[in-house]
Write a structure and sequence with these properties.
Elements: H1 9-30, H2 32-52, E1 66-68, E2 73-83, E3 89-98, E4 105-107, E5 112-120, H3 132-135, E6 138-144, E7 149-155, E8 163-165, E9 172-173, E10 178-182, E11 186-192, E12 197-198, E13 205-206, E14 212-215
Antiparallel strand pairs: 1-14, 2-3, 2-13, 3-11, 4-10, 5-6, 5-9, 6-7, 7-11, 8-10, 12-14
Helix pairs in contact: 1-2
Length: 216
């Protein structure tokens, strides 16, 4: 099976391979033993680089009555919060933490029309820090259809300082389609109406475009 790589790796992967190769060659040049000592860590780094930018094909079953996970990762927050950006009231927040080992493709949790896309500069606190949801650099996207309106935030972390998004206001998107990418581990917060029925629990591992977070 051929490994499918994401477009965000088209620059990072070659540069990383060149740097790793130079360091490894330098190790052999200094001392053959040192070169062999560095060989295994170098191979591990090569594996991690390719693994991070993998973009596997998935089977998406669209359903307007469901809210799908926008990313791979672990559910770390389920709580009722106040949203003052779009909803101006209480919403249910489900937060998913992505480690560097997760697939980092971000997908639309619902289909519909994109009502809002905002970028907020900010800090780079650890992604699992509760304050990162409001203080860190992030994007805020709202998509609505006839059944539900959902907001979802890409949140930068201590390592994740490269947020990418590919949608604009007034775009029509399909559920499970790719909308962005975050480099090197972070989190996504999903904000949904309090009437939604959450179908995951803390600690659950979820998959982008496949796992159901809630029903409408």
């Amino acid at each position: 099976m051929i490994l499918k790589l994401h477009k965000e790796g088209k620059t990072t992967i070659p540069v990383s391979l060149i740097v790793i190769s130079i360091l490894l060659a330098g190790g052999f040049w200094v001392n053959t033993t040192l070169g062999y000592v560095l060989l295994l860590p170098a191979l591990v780094l090569v594996f991690l680089v390719f693994n991070f930018f993998r973009n596997p094909d998935i089977k998406i079953v669209t359903d307007d009555s469901k809210i799908l996970s926008p990313c791979d990762g672990k559910v770390v927050v389920i709580e009722e919060v106040e949203d003052n950006v779009y909803f101006n009231g209480k919403v249910i927040q489900v937060s998913i933490f992505m480690s560097p080992l997760n697939v980092h493709v971000n997908r639309n949790p619902v289909g519909g029309k994109v009502r809002l896309v905002k970028y907020f500069p900010g800090k780079y606190l650890m992604a699992f820090n509760p304050k990162s949801s409001s203080l860190n650099e992030q994007t805020y996207v709202v998509t609505a259809n006839d059944r539900v309106t959902v907001a979802y935030k890409q949140i930068a972390g201590f390592l994740a300082r490269r947020i990418r998004w590919y949608i604009n206001e007034n775009d029509t998107v399909t559920q499970g389609s790719e909308y962005g990418f975050i480099k090197y581990g972070s989190r996504i917060d999903i904000l949904m109406p309090v009437s939604c029925k959450v179908q995951v629990k803390l600690g659950d591992t979820v998959k982008a475009g496949v796992s159901i977070l809630a029903s409408v």
